[in-house]
Every structure is written in C-alpha cells, then in structure tokens.
Input
Amino acid sequence: MTATGYGLRPFMKGEQANLFKDLAYKLLTENRLLGTEGHKRALRIIDSLLAYTGGRHTKEPFEAKGWFPTKAWIEVEDKRVPAVPFLGSPQGEYEGYTTRNYFKDHIALIENMDYIKLSHALSKEVKAVITYRPFSESYIYGPLMEGGLPVVSVRREDVELLEDRRVKIVIKSEQKGVRGCNFVFEVGRGPVVYIIACMDTTAETYGAVFNGISVLLAIFLYQELLKSYERPYRLRFLLADACELGNLGVSHHINLKGLKHVSYCINLEGVGGFNPSVIYRDREGYNGEKINELFLKHVEDVGFKISFLPASGLKPTHIPFRNKGVECLHLSSDASLIRHTIQDNYDAVSFEHTFMWYDVILSFLRRLHRL
Output
C-alpha cells in the first residue's frame, strides 16, 4: 500500500501554508517570557486563533513566583565580562575559583549546561555555574534550573579570561509573581490522548523551534480534526504555559484535571527543526514503549524518514505525565544547539519539515487505534 493509502496526503500547501507562515511570523516574533507585554500579546493571538477554529477551548489561569534576573556580569582582575543569567538565578555576588574540575565552593565552568550536569554541580556544592556553547558565539538564555543554583552564560571567546581564575559573579534579579495561562481544547470521545505544546520563552529569545511553532501546529491539527474526528479517542490538546519555569503549567493542569482514563501523551516539543526525530530517552528515563512502537510502525508504513535519538540532558514538558505512569511520545528534531539562544527564531524554522509533521501526526492520530 502506498503512503497516500494510509492517509498521508501531500503536505500542507497553497493558501493554508501561506496562512500558517503568516501566523507563525506574528507569534514567533514575540518574546513570550511570563510577565512581559510580549507574553500577553502572544496569549491574545492564541486565544483569537482558537476562537477562529469554531471549537470550544478553556483557559486555566495560574500564578507563579520566582527570581527574574535583569542583568549580570563577571569581574575578573581589572576586567568586567558580560554575562546572561538563567531564569531563577537569585540576586547576589558570588566569588570563587572558576574550574572545570570543581568541588565545594568552586564556580563550575560547564559546556552546554543541562540537567544532568546541573545535578552533578549541585552534588559538589558549588557556589555558581558559568556555562557556554563551545560551537557558538551565542549567549544561552537559560530556563529555571533546579536547586536555586545561580547560573550565567558567557560567549565562547570570553571563556579563556575566566578559566582557572578567581572571579566574582554579580547578578541583578527581582523576585516577583507572574501570571500564566494554559489553553485546553479537545475533540472525540473515549480514552484520552494528550497532545501538548509549550507557549512561553526565556528572556530575550523567540523560541521558534523550541517551542512556538508546535503551538501553531497543534491549533491547525485541531482545526482539521474538528471536521471529521469522533472516536475512539478523546484527543485533548494542552498548550502549556510556564514551561521554562519548571513545567509549572503542565503540573497545574494535572493538579486540576487529574489523569483518569489517559492512555498516551504526545509532546510536540522541538518539531519544526531540520532532521525530524523521536526522543525515546531523556534525563529521567525511557518514554513509553508501546506508543513509540506504534509510531515507528506508522512512519514505516507512510515512508517518513525519522531518527530515534536519546537526549539524556533534556527535561521535556511531558515528564509530569510520565511521572504519573502515562506512556509518552516525544516528537522533535536535532536543533537543540540553538535552543535558548537568539538563533532560535522565525528564520530557523523549517516549514517544509513542519508541514510534513502536520500530515504525519494527523494521519497517526486518525489510525492510532488500528495500528
């Protein structure tokens, strides 16, 4: 049987594709950090798009509190090196010896900071972390990291000024409350399958591949499914807020709704980049065996080339679901090197691959019960 016989039609094109790109530009040129005007504008855009679909959606407002840094720098000898603080980094001055072989009271120098490396730094009781991207001159505008550890990023070219030297990190930060809001909408009847996407960003970034394009993709999927999908699953879409603040929006939703009769969770975090992939393992272990096997069978049937990859440093949005025993499928790409940088913008999106994802996911949802 051909790919078209399994329901994989020609990719989104024509007026629909142009509309998608126009809407993507509006959404992905907004910084969506909670508490900013850009975040408010993005929520209004999403709200109006959902109203336009003709379906019903609900809002789940919530409040969050934390440290929101405004600026940082590092003093070394008679120089001041610019730095970018991660979300959640508390205000203060942190002095110590900067080294890659860190122990208690050191300042850890770490390439490509992730949650595995964070856990190691916390176990060593370091004072703070300086991180950078070894293959990029970009700063990392990082998310909230666990444990309250101060984290700043620098450019690669500044690392040699800091390594194996005594430095002082200065972070200016404000502790404040902010408001977030999830959007929930669904189609069909039966056991629940979640499709989730993240709306917010870190400071200064536009979060296009990670993760704004997945929000728009979810809305277009929903609009198409409204035309004909009825059963055997209840397809529940969750556009989650405050993902960069420790998945607060997802946790809030689960606390409100519970997870009764939930079969699977499909995470769209990272679709839209080049080289489509499925992340089968992350920081906290393996994703659902059955749902990953079903998706593998589907992509083989429709002839969609995709890689199955591990990403042990990630803490994806679906983890609160998986921690409750729900089987998860993480659809993504290998664009993680631009994540949380200014390079993750509208121009980084591969619309060709996004439109391919649209058709692959749409056909997968329609035939999931037959696989």
